[in-house]
Model the fold of this input.
Amino acid sequence: MRSGFTKHISAGIGRSCERKTPGNTAVLQYFLRENVTRPKQWWDKLHEESNREISGAQVKDWLWFCCLVTTDVNFLYFQGEFVKHGGAYFLLVYLLMIYFIVFPVLHLEIFVGQLCQAGVCKTFNMYGRLFIGFGVVIFLMGCLRSAFFVQRSYLVSVHMWNIMRNAESVASCQRPEFKLPNSALYCTSIVNDKECRAKEGAMYFYGSKCINDTQNVKTNMPAAEQYFSHTFNASEGSFTLTDRTQPLPKCLTSILHCDPVICADDRTVLFHSEYVECVENIDEAVNTGLTLQLSGQTSILVFSVQLCDVKAIFALQTYMQALYYGVLTTGVALTGMLCSSSFRYQQGDSYRLACAVAINNVLVNFFSCFLALCVASVFESTPRFGSSYQPRKSGFLYSIGTVPEVLLYKDRSPFWIIAFTLICVITNACTFAGKPLQLLAVKLTKVNLALTAGGAATTCALVRDNVKSHVEYWTAAGITLFCTIGLLLCLIRCHPSVGLPWERILQEMFNMNIFFTMAIMIMVFIQVYGPREFIIDMAEISRIRRHWNSYNSPFSPWHTTMFKALPIVFVTWLLQPSSVHIRQAAPRCSFFSSYKFHKLELHFKDG
Done:
């Protein structure tokens, strides 16, 4: 039998049909006829098709959705929370939040989107005219929320322009932009220290010369913090509106170049979409390559053990931050997730897609934390900072500023700095504008997959649901207008008197939007389907087809092993060596961990 979710969604939509909502009766009747009253033979055939081998199109579908939710939050902000809230214990709490709270809601959002085949406004209108107001509110909040990513992308573009001109100056205390008379006296850089040791034999760079006195250099501001305080602080008078809007034409050009793709032929479209997909998926590989070149395994294990604080498990802030970043990094209440899944074919496997998205984000966050440990271990081994310096600040200040400093300290080419920043630019662009390239390149009436993010996704779905002709051109115009308005909102931050309050307003609006949207969706689903059925379907929502067994339930033993056992094994391996004997035990632990995973793999193969 089909799950209670399908039964109650038909009942909820049936009640909407009985109300004869204007403009929706025909759509709802078609929905009931095509999706609820299917014959048994149709469900059996669908079950046979679902048991076939996973095709390349499905894998590509999963990759696109994984790129949709992989943002700069995974690379730049999650690692800071990992450091501040107990290290590996924070990862453990994060995994529990993903499994018990975030993953079921994410699955529910994907399932509803592709089942209703409509955007957020039309989906809520199916439940009745009273609920359409919630859909409109979510749509508007999604568009406003995108302004936060627009501003962040703009700041990264400013940083990109600086490293293109002179990458080494980012991590140096001798930048010409430091116009304040005492700014150099309060700046420290491990790159300048290394130059002093190589040229003059002195240990530290202080002010404008090399010295050996450690009295004044331990508590000074790092070069990355100096750089970002002068570059991105709206209160600094040295950076005018002209300086801040310099990359603006480049951003507009990169957005507007999407429009001519509409007129391209199928061959050009295929090449363009494959190129974009390769660029978007290269981020994990480059991040892994960076981490392997920064430091050794022993020092990373030492610092990881130092970060582990068992008190974090008993702190409420740890659970709140784990839930917040679990929601943020997996695309729950992204608004674009529901709208993007509505472009998939209606009988798509929503459960496997939700699994792929959740696993992808967990892996990316693990790589991000590994990168943070590599960078921190480098600073830990420098004579200047000793054990007093730890990456307690996340975001731009830590990642985009500190990683270039470490790369230059390790004599890496400026190419790696540009590559790392390009990763951040690409993930920001994907978050802000989504992926309108493929959406605009093919006709919406024929494509089965069209992925966008945030406000761009809701714009595409809104055009598709309400425009009957020339859908692709109206979509191009809507996305272009949306991106232009978002970029113009960044100009408010350039004004010294309102720049900092505006940034704080955007941050608070961003945080409020996530949980408010999530609360609205859960409230509406419970109102339509009932609290009992909602809780049941949160656990067994994937059982919407006949003859499916408990293997397909999110809480089956195999899925419990996949989502809980393997991460717990990883955390146990991370915490296993003691802080006293860790240097001697590191090689043995590395072999033991590989042996455990080998046995676990054999166990899975044996069934």
The longest strand covers residues 204-206. The mean pLDDT is 59. The chain has one domain: 53-542+556-575. Strands lie at 187-188, 204-206, 209-211, 221-222.
